Amino acid sequence: MELSSKIAMLYDKDSSAAYKSLQELEMISNTEDTLYPYFDEFLDMLGNGKYLIRVRGFRLLCKQAKWDTENKIDREIDTVLQAVDDEKPTAVRQKLKAMEDVARYKKALRGKIKNKALSIHDLPFKDTMHSLIQKDVQSLLQVMENE
Fold it and tell me: Backbone phi, then psi, for 145, in 5-degree steps?
């Protein structure tokens, strides 16, 4: 299946097929820059009404940090960080994990990332989610400290 078909699959109602496509695209992004030209599409996905599509776009956008020779993430960092604030706690958790890629490859953005991570405790989630989200925040902060 070609890349454009895999990307189109991210919008599929079949969440299993969409997730499989996401995983394949993430694997590609780990080793090559062939998805970098789709950066703007991933950025557009952050504003989608469906949280799963927002998360998929966010994860793939963050994977492009390794290949971001044009500093697109640097220019869009405020939009990217704002997208971490999601109504769904599972989305916030996935986005915090995905931000680790940005933190690894975009050292100049670490201050903004750290500030965002430290402000996450203000989100209105059930108490059961707070400790999980705080673990994700600590993991992100640790990536920045160790690299």
Answer: -75, -35
Answer yes or no: are the C-beta atoms of 45 and 58 closer than 8 Å: yes
Tens of pLDDT, residue by residue over 119-138, are 886 667 887 888 899 899 99
How many Cα atoms are found within 13 Å in the side-chain-facing hemisphere of 111? 2
**Alpha carbon separation from 120 to 40, 53, 77, 128, 137 (Å, rounded):** 26, 21, 16, 15, 8
Per residue, the 3-state secondary structure of 37-93, as one string, reads HHHHHHHHHCCCCCHHHHHHHHHHHHHHHHHCCCCHHHHHHHHHHHHHCCCCHHHHH
> How distant, in Å, are the alpha carbons of 8, 22, 37, 61, 96 from that of 4?
6, 12, 11, 15, 26
For the stretch 19-63, pLDDT in tens is 999 999 999 999 999 999 999 999 999 999 999 999 999 999 999
Query: Please, are residues 46 and 61 in contact by the beta-carbon 8 Å criterion?
Result: yes
Enter the tokens of residue 9: 């699959």
The answer to pTM > 0.85 is yes
